[in-house]
Amino acid sequence: MMERKALENDPQELERFKQDIDLVAYAQSQGYQLKSQGKRGDWHHLVHDGEHLIISRKNHKQVYLNPGDDRDRGTIIDFVKTRENMNLGEVRLHLREYLNGNPSPPQLPVGDTGPISSGAGSSQGKGKEGPDDEEIRRTRLISEVLGVRRELSDRSYLHSRGITDATIDNPAFQGRVFTSQQNGHRNTAFPLYNEKGLASVEQKNKDFKSLLELPKDGIWVSHPTQGKGTPIERLVVTESAIDAMSYHQLKHDGKNTMYIATAGTVTERQTELIQRIIDKQVPREIVLADDRDAAGRRYNINYLNDLQMARSFRPLADQEAYGEAARPISWHATLGRYHTNLRVDFHHASAQEGEKIVQPLLRQAAHLNSSQEEPSIEVTIQRSTEKDTVVKLSAARADTAQLEILSQELYRQREKLRPETERQPANFIRVDYPLSKDFNRDLELTLQGLTPEQIRQQARLEETERHLRERQPGEAGQERLPAGTSPAVSPQKQMEKEAGTEKQAMVQVKEIDRGHGAKGRAEAVRDTLERSGAMVGDIHSIRQEGARFSEMSVRYRTNQEEIGKISRALDAVGNQKGNSVLEHPSDRAERRDLAGKARVDRVAQQEIAR
Q1: Which of 328, 423, 438, 574 lies at a C-alpha separation of 20 to 30 Å from 526?
Q2: What does the pLDDT read at residue 379?
Q3: At 471, which helix (H) or strand (E)?
Q4: Tally of CB atoms within 10 A around 179
């Protein structure tokens, strides 16, 4: 027994696992397929079910990273813990069994720590890329794209996206957008920067987008709108430089503003760089202007946790380090194929305090679930100790907005728990979503002459039509008959007509925000539609600047006895100020026609009864 206990707690055993188990072979045994590898076998790219892994070597051990999740990285120990959901003891038992009969990974020469190491390496490793080689490669790739003369000589792509010359010529964007010429093609180039200078380049054109094959180690950063070197008031964070320029064209109000773009998926390193910009520029407010989708909401959830006011240096031993505000609560969201997950860590002085500090989150999640027809948020307390409590929340991607509401409540709770001197000013970070999918689409619709309300309606209509196309894939390709002719109705079609078909609409409600827990017009609309006989889905709401924006799906069948009441209820809701009913025009015409026929039939039956 003593021998077994010593083995279970032997720290050297974990090191042996890291050195003796071939992580590539282990991953392949778990279903991962080798897609590519370095010429010398010093890195491997594996894929499994849409997930990509890069396995390389660091300090004589194989390590992996998941480019799609900055926190999914580490050694064979981390790999097993993450994917098998095991504790450390279970990992030991699992890897002991696996190690029997499996070969060790090939060893690199002494001193060769692989391409991700910061060490100088060994002269034995000819052809490997050390830090100097990586920098030379970076410089070469960027030079090939931008050329010697870095200028914007072709504005056609920007014009095609609705960006005007007045926006392009603003001081914010001077020297921040270029024309690239490569392989005979002219594209618009957006350089990404880090603290060392140029880090990469994103190129765009019609139906073309490319980011250099370099580590995503930079962000696109504009100058201040009032000119380089002027103190800024506002920092706006977007997913793309085109969205940043669109936001400026739509919303610039004269405040000295700087724009940042991440060129898509946000990495942990990019979040660090954004914080460095905040530390240096000291803006009074941060505006999160990401896309109105699950990914954009996830970025904003994490920004709320990660970004803070400008930090100052504090002495630490013989050096200086950034001073960090207390974090009694922290959280991080990850996006899966079907769900968004939110991990929340609570730090407390005692188990009793932990139980108290967790309650607001549990109550808010329970309230959001109770306000919907079906609960959308799954809550699990993963760990609870004297000092720490970990809660995991999960929701379908379509319900990511519910997790965003919870993150905003967590943000407010954390600020109250912090010492007063460390609290961030009210509205230091605020979210500003586009009316449609992104701010460039907003700009496109605005240039077409649509009002904000019409843009919202158009965005919902596009989303609804997409769902309708998925539900009725054959309708779009049906051939129209000449006017005055009627199609022959097959017995099958006649049966379908008699059985009725299911139709779907989307109802949107804008009203004054009365606060969480208070019922408003959205709930009244849902009750009205349900009483008419329609099937109404959950209410999804977003609160912003004193207003509450809600939407709900409505379904009905064309053969329902209550079709007249349903049609009249939908029309009444749509005629109310602040409401919109988004449905396919043919569906609207059909339900009104059926409602009219139902009324005629009812009158006829009454006449016969007399």
Answers
A1: 438
A2: 95
A3: helix 452-471
A4: 20
Which tokens in the block code for residue 339? 């769900």
Instruction: Render the burial of 409-448: b for 16+ CB within 10 Å, e for the rest.
Output: bbbebbbebbeeeebbeeebbebbbbbbbbbbbbbbbbee
Quickly list DSSP for 210-275: EE-SS----BEEPPPTT-TTPPPSEEEEESSHHHHHHHHHHH--SS-EEEEE-SSSPPHHHHHHHH
pLDDT tens column, 436-467:
999 999 999 999 999 999 998 888 877 766 55
At 258-308, the pLDDT tens digits run 999 999 889 999 999 999 999 999 999 999 999 999 999 999 999 999 999
For residue 560, the SS3 value is: coil
Q: Are β-strands 43-48 and 51-58 bridged in parallel, bridged antiparallel, or unpaired? A: antiparallel
Burial class (CB in 10 A: 0-12, 13-18, 19+), 265: middle
Query: Cα separations (Å) of 379 from 193, 362, 368, 403, 471?
Result: 39, 8, 12, 11, 32
CA distance 180 to 142: 10
**CA distance linking residue 192 with residue 228, whole number of Å:** 17
Q: What is the pTM of this model?
A: 0.58
Q: How far apart are CA 351 and CA 385, in angstroms?
A: 6
Six-digit token pair at 363? Answer: 């109550």
Please report which residue ranges of 472-581 form alpha helices under DSSP H. Answer: 491-499, 521-532, 563-575
Could you tell me which residues come within 8 angstroms of residue 131 by beta carbon, excluding any fewer than 6 positions away? 118, 120
Say if CB 581 and CB 504 are below 8 A apart. Answer: no
d(CA 83, CA 579): 46
Strand bridging mode 61-66 / 208-211: unpaired
C-beta separation of 563 from 595 below 8 A: yes
Task: Name, in order, each residue with C-beta under 8 angstroms of 212's C-beta and a sequence gap of 6 or more.
Answer: 141, 142, 145, 200, 201, 202
With CA atoms as reference, report the closest residue to 582 among 501, 513, 473, 509. 509
Q: What's phi and psi for 164, nearest 5 deg? A: -85, 165
Tokens of 108: 């690199």
CA 79 – CA 62 distance, rounded (Å): 11
Crossing angle of helices 400-417 and 294-306, in 10° steps, is 10
Taking the C-alpha atoms of residue 136 and residue 129, their distance in angstroms, rounded to an integer, is 10
Instruction: Locate all alpha helices (DSSP H) within 66-128, ordered by sequence.
Output: 76-84, 88-99
> How far is the CA of 31 from the CAs of 47, 74, 262, in angstroms?
9, 19, 32
Residue 456: other Cβ atoms inside 10 A: 20
Q: 3-state DSSP call for residue 386?
A: coil
Please count the CA atoms within 13 angstroms of the CA of 92 that sit on its side-chain side. 15
